[in-house]
Amino acid sequence: MELTQIAFGGGCHWCTEAVFQSLLGVEKVEQGFVASVDDNTSFSEAVIVHFNSTKISLETLIEIHLHTHKSTSNHSMRTKYRSAIYTFSGEQMKIATAQLESFQFQFQNKLITQVLPFNKFKASREQIQNYYYSNTKKPFCERFINPKLQILIDTFSTYTNHNKLKHLKQ
Fold it and tell me: Is residue 96 situated within a structural domain?
């Protein structure tokens, strides 16, 4: 089985990592920092998602990403938390760009998520990788990550790994 990869940036990479780790068809999530090209060469918190495209589509992953971070909020921390889909091919770039346009109607405000070419990755230190599933009871996880995972349960339950999320109210 060959896996496809795509990278996502939005909010905290602990949150983004937990969201994608909770999905069926996602085989691996690398947490760290991604840089693109041109005006986006600075590293920003992000994850690389390795997924089986026969079990979950790129389009579904993009829709989930848009709904589990502030994809319409252009706040002052956007350099550290760039709202982006980092693509690994021209085909992915076309799909991601079309999906942003297609999903805009689901949001009251304009999506600010950028579609950017992936350039570089720097992994987080090992101690904070798999953060949520190593620390589900920590206040940060309960306050910031659990609501994002609840969105998965409420809106994208077909794609969620219910065994991983059984500790949340369903």
Answer: yes
d(CA 164, CA 22): 6
Question: How far apart are alpha carbons 80 and 103 in whole angstroms?
Answer: 24
Q: What is the residue whose two structure tokens read 């350099």?
A: 79
Q: Does a structural domain hold residue 164?
A: no
Q: State how far the Cα of 148 lies from the Cα of 150, in Å rounded to an integer.
A: 5
pTM as predicted: 0.95
Q: In what order do the strands lie in the sheet with 26-35?
A: 114-117, 84-87, 4-9, 44-51, 26-35, 120-123
Interval 64-104: pLDDT, tens: 999 999 999 887 777 788 999 999 999 999 999 999 999 99
117: containing domain: 4-159
Chain CA centroid to CA 153, Å = 16
Number of domains in the chain: 1
